[in-house]
C-alpha cells in the first residue's frame, strides 16, 4: 500500500534520513521505533508532504506522492496525527473534528463525528468543550479522531502515548487496534516500544537516520538489541 524507496531527507546540511526503505501493506499496523533524533518524525512528515526528500520516493498504492502538497496527500488517503497533538486550542471538540473533514463535502461527515465519539466516548461528553481545556489524554484522543475525519486509508500516528498516564496509554492503544480492525492501515511512531510491538504486525528500528532492524513484531520484541535498547531488559 505504502512504500518508501531510498529516502534521503535533509534539514539544511543535516542528513536526517539516509536512504531508508520500508513498506506498509494494506491492513497492517507497522511500528517505527528508535531513540530521539533517529528520524521517526521526519519519516512521517515526509510521507505527509510537510518535508520534501532530496532523493528517493514515497509511493502510495503505486503512485508517487512525495512531490504533492500536503492537502493532495490527504485527499489521496493519508492522514497524520502529529507529535504533540497540534489541536486547535480555541475551537471546541466538535469543531476540531469538523476541521479534520475540511476536504470533504459529502453528507457523511456527521456520521463520522459519531464514529469518533463511539471510539472515544469521553469526547462525546466534552463535544462542546474548548479543546485547549481538555486533559492531555483527551487531547490525544481528539488528535486521532480529527485525523480519522479525513477517512484515511492509512493513518500516521506520531507518539500517541507521549505524556500520558499508563492507564490512558492502554486505552489509546486498545482504540488504535480497534481502528485497524475496522479497516484502517496504520504506521505508528512510538517511544514505548513494548506497547507498540504488542499491537503491531511488523516493525522497523531506526538509528540515526538509517534502518538498523526490521521484522515481525514478535521477532523484534525478542531481539536482544531491541530488548536492551528499547525494552529495558538486560541480555
Search tags:
about 240 residues; alpha/beta
Structure summary:
The protein has 10 helices and 10 strands. The chain is α/β, with parallel strands linked by helices and 235 residues long.
Description of the structure:
The protein is an alpha/beta fold and 235 residues long. The protein folds into 2 domains: 1-77 and 162-235, P-loop containing nucleotide triphosphate hydrolases (Rossmann fold, 3-Layer(aba) Sandwich); 86-151, no CATH class. The protein has 10 helices and 10 strands. Helix 3 packs parallel to helix 6.
Write the layout of secondary structure elements.
Elements: E1 2-11, E2 14-24, E3 29-33, H1 40-47, E4 55-60, E5 63-64, H2 70-75, E6 78-81, H3 93-100, H4 109-119, H5 121-125, H6 136-148, E7 154-158, H7 166-181, E8 185-189, H8 193-199, E9 202-207, E10 210-216, H9 217-222, H10 224-230
Parallel strand pairs: 3-8, 3-9, 6-7, 7-8
Antiparallel strand pairs: 1-2, 1-4, 4-5, 9-10
Helix pairs in contact: 3-6
